[in-house]
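Write out this protein's structure.
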Amino acid sequence: MGKINTILLDCDNTLVLSEELAFEGCADLINEIAKTKNVPLQQPFTGESLIIEFVGQNFRGMMVSLQKRYGFDMTPAELDDYVRREEDVVIAKLREKLVACPGVDDVLAKLAASGQYKLAVVSSSALRRVKASVEKVGQAKYFGDDIYSAATSLPTPTSKPDPAIYLHAMKQLGKTADECVAVEDSKSGTLSGTRAGIKVIGYVGPYKEAEREKMVKILKDAGAVVIMQDWSEFEDCLAKIERGEV
């Protein structure tokens, strides 16, 4: 096994507590689309109901799923327009209210100070949104230009669980899968990293207590080799992987 020298981090609800804010903005827009397209929703989507269903998927991915489910169509131009609008709505919310995940800043500072690891962000969200997020909470200094977005950085936009964004990030960084560890909080993200051959730490910190036990199982089933309840456990989780125990 190669020596681990690269930590690839998901952004939403791994570095920053953005999912609830983002899904609030997103729900408003999806309800508007449903009205425009005469889609009979049983009840309007809320941030919370969207999260339960689509955590880890980007807006484009959600739209594809919803079109299939409700049998409506959208032209590529329409979809692009909504994707841009969703980005604007969400970025405005994040700039106003976003905070970092508890304990992550200490870990990033320590990793950066050690000089042993390359740090990069690998997200499904649009690049502009990811950059706005890490800038707002003061984490941008750890990543420089090493921020990769499944929605923006690839020739064809995609979303996790497709491993394309992890494969792209490793190629850009000149790293192999056994030099990397990923941190992910969702099933789709964990599958994406695992399918790219990377060992994934599953992070369940931001989930409500009632959801947490279920998420531990979901992330393990998706391939996470170790589960982290809180960022204070990161060093232990990484050490386990580095020793080859998991």
